[in-house]
């Protein structure tokens, strides 16, 4: 019989724990159309709301007449700023310490700003009502170019801030200025530039774009007048934070607010903040006593509900003739739109942009950021990026290529020369971070060997010669990018939202039969948490992942968590899960010792249970321990087997990666072909390699979109000209290149399972790889830097400007 006992490998495989390519359990419902999204929710008597929005980017609102709208069959109410003032909700606080109009109060500051909220018995009636609301506007001068926002005669955008010489982040220099943020040693950096053999300076723009999740932002609010309770179902990446915000601004006791995030169809940072739709639906429900649904359409989502990037980075590097970097100086002009609603931890007005020294050992650096107001939508969300990290990575990775060009050095060699060396970790960067771990040279060399980098450069040289001879009209670009990410916000010492430390949490309850439920403070928007969180628990406590149900998103049942964005789930919630599981295992060990009649110290862990040291046949499986926890615990011990952990990480985690893009561009048409894209990621311990690969594919596709065409663009009058998928580049399988993925593993030394986040790495590293490929292609024609996005037209225009069109 003993021959039939499962082997250690079989026992390990049966758990489907960490390292296993476990199939996504969520997909059973998603692939059958059985997901449960906000718009699937239909409550008895439910009403629908829709917004009247401003056609102007800047205008005074002279009057709003709702008479005709209220005569539309089915329309029950039209809510304006005047209505909201009666409940003190005409303005709401933002996560960045500013205030934002919920509905236009006297003026509008960006196109499609919310002006009035029409409530009706169905969505069609609400839309008809919207068309009948008459708003009289007086147009005002518009600021779209951030470089003009602080001109002496620039129009005053935020009249509500008149006379306020300081904001949430210190002094304001101008009526359209929000904050100045500086980091680093200015004197030392200036001295490095004075002594430098070589310097470069370039204004590198990262254009405005948008996360555009498949499912737009939406909610259903239901106020129970009898109980005085408000239930909100919504597309929230951070449901507990929403509950606290609602409690603070609506002055409702927090226990009377129930926030539920059901399945979410992509977030990418778009669903972190609070939007006027949520406030208006809640007020409408309180006023009417009925549940109210608000679902925005695609154009509303793209034009009004947040944005990402819009950073204009004047970047300088000082270096020696041999290519050793000696100083970095960056000034950022950050366009925050009409209200500062950036979703960053409280103390970080420019997020973690001070990771801008990247993977390089800069002895000194200085950074200053000026945030300004303009007539654009507010937001500044972390679109698959931890708080401005993607802007920082783009900035330094373009700048390193520009330096390589000036030094006539190979860009990969320049990087290898300047990388932080393995023995320098934990590494203290010139701008204040402590990088936990890394092995950059190994990753870079693996990438170069796999793609046969030297051969590619040889091919490029031949192709350039052929171009010069007139034998081809195609130019070849090789885009190298090496990024260091900073994810896992974050340690309570420097990260909070509204004063709440950015810990995360997990509660595990094991049932008598050896199954259990884990409730977690994070909230998946498609990242597969139900699959991977169970894998962590499976390895930690030896119960098959299939026997662990994972639940997130219900503030009544999940422990308080700060939610999912900025790839913080694995570094923070993932750690809380491991720690909660270890508490379970510790209690299980006491129960096993009692049942096996040995001292706890005589037991050792063995895959799926405990065994007595030196007596391998004397074992107790975790499954049996679960049963014992409910009927025969040691005297004096409470029955049951559950644990909670709130995890405050000691540091962020620092994933990294080496990417390369090989691209051909036809100079006569600007048409490009991505011939090869290779992405090597190091996210420490890998929980589920298949999910990681999916995350990388998705992030690279977004990076491809952003670098090669995706943009929220305005005309001079402040009209959004890329406000629908007709104009906003959304790559399909047809345009998307083939991705090659690879990895190295450098575990985080402080994370309980050594894991780092991965979800946003491909967006962070991908954008510079694409942009460097385009810029590398044109560099031999005398170009230094071409701004993104690199669509066909702009490539053609670049060729034209370089005088190579026939
Ligand atoms: O916060 P978010 O879930 O967006 O990002 P993440 O922590 O990078 O995790 C994204 C997905 O990748 C999750 O399902 C993780 O469990 C998985 N992952 C993994 O399997 N191994 C890692 N080292 C990091 C993430």
Spans of at least 5 consecutive residues whose pLDDT stays below 50 are none
Distance between the termini: 82 Å
Shape label:
globular
Order of strands in the sheet with the most strands? 3-7-1-16-13-14-15
Strand content: 15-25%
What profile does the largest beta sheet have?
7 strands, mixed
Mean pLDDT: 97
Number of helices: 19
Structural class: alpha+beta
Helix content: 25-40%
Secondary structure: number of strands: 34
Summarize the model shown.
By secondary structure, the protein is α+β, with helices and mostly antiparallel strands.
Please give the structural blueprint.
Blueprint: H1 8-15, H2 27-30, E1 47-53, E2 59-65, H3 67-70, E3 75-79, H4 81-85, E4 91-93, E5 99-101, E6 107-108, E7 114-120, H5 123-132, E8 134-139, E9 166-167, E10 170-171, E11 177-184, H6 186-195, E12 198-209, E13 218-224, E14 229-234, H7 239-250, E15 257-260, H8 276-288, E16 292-295, H9 298-304, E17 308-319, E18 325-335, E19 365-372, H10 389-407, H11 411-418, E20 427-428, E21 434-435, H12 440-451, H13 453-469, E22 474-484, E23 496-497, E24 500-501, E25 504-510, E26 516-520, H14 529-541, E27 548-552, H15 569-596, E28 603-605, E29 609-612, E30 615-621, H16 622-629, E31 641-647, E32 656-666, E33 672-682, H17 689-708, E34 740-743, H18 761-779, H19 792-801
Parallel strand pairs: 1-16, 14-15, 18-19, 26-27, 33-34
Antiparallel strand pairs: 1-7, 2-6, 2-8, 3-7, 4-5, 9-10, 11-19, 12-17, 13-14, 13-16, 17-18, 20-21, 22-32, 23-24, 25-26, 25-31, 28-29, 29-30, 32-33
Bound molecules: cytidine-5'-diphosphate (CDP).
Cytidine-5'-diphosphate is lined by residues 527-529, 532, 564, 567-570, 683-688, 691-692, 695, 755-759.
